Amino acid sequence: MKASKLYMLLMVSIVFYSCGNDPKEDKEPLNVEINNRKDKENLNISYLLDLSDRISPQKYANESMEFYQRDVAYIRSVSEAFVSHLKGKKVRGMNDKIQLYFDPEPLNQSINKISNDLRYHVNRSNASLEILDEIEHMYSEKPLEIYEYAIKDAKYVGSDTWRFFKTKISDYCIEDDYRNILVVLTDGYIYHKDTKIMEGNRSSYLTPKLVKELKLNDKDWKGKIENKEFGFISTGMDLSNLEVLVLGINPSKNNPYEEDVIMKYWRDWLEDMNVKKYEIKTAELPSNMDKIIKEFILN
To answer: What percent of the chain has pLDDT over 90?
Structure first.
């Protein structure tokens, strides 16, 4: 056999061998434009939505952009970061989750159905560009429907955020071998009629009325909090395997120190629970928050 023919047969054999040992899921990431990114850890992202009267455009109107619309845009930014993360992974490495919660659960069954529709677990058995497009579409459209239903119903029963952290967060939002991230959409105040607890100077709730009663409305607010140990009641939880991003803080305008007080309450509470990483942001316009949100998720 001539050397040239032998060379051609050898090259053909190499090509067939390579194809036979390169399964589809081991090839390039779904988005070849960012295929230089390494496979990252698996994400488990949860949202906790506060559907209290803070979202009411009648009670808390805002000319630049309604607060519920800001929430919707924040939710979309998080979901876009989630999809971007997936597009940078190889299919065989995908095992990522995203879901949405409320506490208390709304009575409106349409809201609960949408919440169920927004629950995704993307892994090597179902990963495709189609499902990633679906996630982006669903999280762009469906959260707005949730807020519209809640506003139309106008049954604002409050936000039992403290109880969620104490009794549900471990089961709902934390899994082993994941990077667990909880995104809390709230104005910073916490109140539910069935979870109004006081233990000494600590409480399970925070309202403008309580801030006023504790006289945290002057320049000595920080000293009072520290000396009298004001704050949220400890949940006793160890959340060292959780990251928390709090978005939408919107303090009452009647007290110039209200934002500082809210931030202090939340920081002390999250640190008491050993939260691995956290950021707390006010209700800025989504165009200003998009980069901040995506950096938190992707970095």
So the answer is: 85
Residue 88 makes CB contacts below 8 A (sequence gap 6+) with 29, 31, 34, 35, 37, 39, 40
What is the token pair recorded at 295? 């950096």
Tens of pLDDT, residue by residue over 259-292, are: 999 999 999 999 999 999 999 999 999 999 999 9
Lowest mean pLDDT segment, chosen from 25-34, 127-136, 146-155:
25-34
Say which range, 12-21, 208-217, 249-258, has the weakest mean pLDDT. Answer: 12-21
DSSP 237-270: ---TT-EEEEEEE---TT-TTHHHHHHHHHHHHH
Q: What is the dihedral of CA 250, 252, 258, 263, to 10 degrees?
A: -20
- Rounded Cα distance, 152 and 150, in Å: 5
Q: For residue 158, what is the DSSP state?
A: E
- Tokens 């390039």 belong to residue: 28
End-to-end CA distance of the chain: 58
pLDDT digits (tens, 9 = 90+) for 106-129: 989 999 999 999 999 999 999 999
Indicate the domain borders of the chain. Answer: 27-298
What CATH topology corresponds to 27-298?
Rossmann fold (3.40.50)
Identity (one letter) of the amino acid at 203? Answer: S
Q: Shortest CA distance to 42 belongs to which of 100, 120, 141?
A: 120
Q: Tokens at residue 215, please?
A: 């006289």
Which of left, alpha, beta for 250 (phi over 0: left; psi -120 to 50: alpha)? beta
H helical segments located in the chain: 3-20, 67-87, 109-117, 129-153, 161-167, 169-173, 208-213, 221-228, 258-272, 286-298
Task: Enter the tokens of residue 128.
Answer: 């495709």
Burial class (CB in 10 A: 0-12, 13-18, 19+), 201: middle
Give the pLDDT confidence of 168-180 residue by residue, as tens digits: 999 999 999 999 9
- Residue 107 has a pLDDT of 87
